[in-house]
Design brief:
With 100 residues, the protein is an alpha+beta fold. 22% of the residues lie in helices and 24% in strands. It has one domain. Strands 2-1-4-3 form a 4-stranded antiparallel beta sheet, covered by helices on one side.
């Protein structure tokens, strides 16, 4: 049995000092906003999910979808969840993953 996994963007940081010091100017930054949600079915990337964010969370989503959890022996209060951040060091987004 495969479970759905709810993905919620719960926090988005914006490190303007690091952007000014290290980042080349870019035309398009992250479109994700706090409160945005997606549903992964069968452990697959939801439509509209940022590719970079997905690569940061894919393993956890696949594990939760397969019915597994309890990552790192009790890391999360809810053993069928995970809190994962994307790998953008300038504007990281934290995502709550919850097995349905």
């Amino acid at each position: 049995m495969m479970y759905q996994v709810k993905i919620t963007a719960i926090r988005k940081a914006d490190y303007k000092d690091l952007q000014a010091k290290y980042e080349n100017p870019i035309q398009h930054a992250c479109d994700i906003n706090e409160g945005d949600t997606w549903t992964s079915t069968d452990g697959k990337k939801p439509e509209g999910m940022c590719e970079s964010a997905w690569e940061s969370m894919r393993w956890f989503v696949e594990e939760l979808a397969a019915g597994r959890g309890n990552f790192y022996d009790g890391w999360m209060q809810n053993p069928y969840s995970a809190l994962i951040s994307c790998n953008d060091g300038f504007r990281p987004v934290s995502f709550l993953l919850e097995r349905g």
